[in-house]
Design a protein that fits this description.
Low-confidence stretches: 87-94
Helix content: 25-40%
Strand order of the largest sheet: 5-4-3-6-2-1-7-8
Shape: elongated
Strand content: 15-25%
Number of helices: 17
């Protein structure tokens, strides 16, 4: 008969380990928001005002918890991850709110109330847990509530407010650096939430998301309402309990069809190129934002391709969803099917680029030549250009060599790398047509050179 002894983990070591689980600020906040959505919230407010002691707080108007439910939900691992979940229950392990919070803050306080219960509050204090070496949950009395001057839940009929204080990302910096970091965090959090929860921000049952009072607008990664968007095929696969996996192919507009405002909004062409690939949603919440997950490689010619995949929460085990709900693995059957499906958007994207390259970029002054023997391309000054031929006919033949040397250097020093960088980063800022205004008369460019020579 085997002998067993219980060796519980040291709470001080365990909580320090949980704080290093790998959340970023925005993924940690997303985990809190998942709980708010599961609680049926219609309004979710993220609050983080510039103060001497920077805090973050998430307030919702969901069903809330009474004091006994709150205590149970403060327990790490309060849910069985293998248990069947409701269709829109975005939680999984019963650890997200706690581990996400502890990863960011040394003090985590949760206030909650239902329609029929009074406001109650409980707090995890990492320093006190480490000192006592016990998972001691602090229950707050009503007298302690006023110390939270940003508490906003008291006037709600029901809901939950999660408060983070003593955040090491700020406390370990000097004041000016902390202020700048906090301002950058607010911008990044807004951007992250706008895309990862964009499906919840519109439609009949939309949820209002605000950050410090600013209402967030959804960011559609497929640009489906913009000129040039091309809708591809879609498929639905029925699984257990009549639930479905939904897959849809998208081709976003070519950058030339985007306004400067829209191109900047999506981060420029380089950011758009990086974000090609799979967009995997878990019950409408974006988990994976771009990348092909080994199915194919990123390509400049394929950067218009996007494949949307929406899976129910019941597939967490099969898709290996992690505790942070920020990564997962594609099952082998899905990989095989996707390899076939992604050929459509990638081919479409490549055709768009090839069409534009052949039709829009050809001109009588430059020519692209292919050296079949070396299998290379070069961009050269077009020696069949009629204007150049007319110029040579009027020139003194002794100057041919000088002009030829200049044209050779002009072709050799074409700033390809800089052009490539500009076209990837902010292509709409490149305005060659501006030269028409700068040099209205053909002699203007010569006059400009002569002026510099005489200075």
């Amino acid at each position: 008969m085997p002998e067993f002894i219980e060796i519980p983990p040291d709470p001080s070591n365990e909580i320090q380990m949980l704080s290093k689980i790998g959340y970023t600020l925005e993924t940690a906040l997303s985990d809190i928001i998942d709980n708010s959505i599961s609680a049926g919230a219609k309004n979710i407010e993220i609050l983080s005002l510039p103060k001497e002691e920077i805090f973050w707080s998430v307030i919702d108007d969901g069903i809330g918890m009474d004091s006994s439910e709150l205590i149970e939900n403060m327990r790490i691992g309060c849910k069985d991850p293998t248990k069947e979940r409701e269709q829109m229950d975005l939680g999984r392990f019963g650890a997200g709110m706690k581990t996400a919070s502890i990863s960011q803050a040394r003090e985590v306080t949760v206030f909650s109330k239902t329609k029929t219960s009074k406001l109650s509050a409980a707090k995890w204090d990492v320093e006190k847990i480490c000192e006592a070496k016990k998972w001691n949950l602090q229950l707050l009395s009503q007298k302690e509530y006023p110390s939270f001057d940003y508490l906003k839940l008291e006037n709600n009929r029901s809901g939950t407010q999660v408060c983070w204080e003593n955040l090491s990302r700020y406390s370990e910096q000097d004041h000016l650096i902390a202020e700048r970091l906090h301002a950058e965090d607010i911008v990044r959090v807004k951007k992250h939430l706008s895309i990862h929860f964009h499906k919840f921000m519109s439609g009949k049952n939309k949820i209002n998301f605000t950050v410090n009072g600013d209402l967030l607008k959804p960011t559609d990664p497929f640009m489906s309402n913009l000129n040039g968007y091309d809708e591809g095929p879609s498929s639905e696969f029925r699984i257990k309990n009549n639930e479905r996996i939904y897959i849809k192919v998208h081709n976003i507009p070519h950058w030339s069809k985007l306004s400067k405002e829209n191109l900047d909004f999506y981060g420029g062409q380089s950011e758009i190129t990086k974000k090609q690939g799979l967009y995997i949603y878990r019950a409408n919440r974006l988990i994976i934002e771009g990348g092909w997950m080994g199915l194919t490689g990123n390509s400049q010619l394929g950067d218009l391709a996007r494949v949307e995949i929406n899976i129910p929460v019941s597939l967490d085990e099969e898709w290996k969803t992690d505790v942070k709900k920020s990564s997962l693995q594609l099952p082998p059957k899905i990989k095989t099917m996707l390899r076939e499906m992604i050929r459509t958007p990638i081919k479409k994207s490549k055709r768009t680029y090839k069409y534009r390259g052949s039709k829009e970029e050809s001109n009588p002054y430059w020519i692209k030549r292919k050296n079949e023997r070396e299998d290379i391309f070069t961009y050269e000054i077009n020696n069949e250009n009629q204007e150049l031929i007319s110029l040579l006919e009027k020139m003194n033949k002794k100057d041919y060599k000088l002009l030829g040397a200049y044209l050779k250097k002009l072709a050799l020093n074409l700033p390809i790398n800089d052009i490539y960088y500009q076209m990837n980063d902010k292509p709409l800022d490149l305005k060659q047509e501006f030269l028409e205004e700068k040099y209205k008369n053909d002699a203007d460019i010569i006059n400009a050179i002569l002026e510099r020579m005489n200075d």
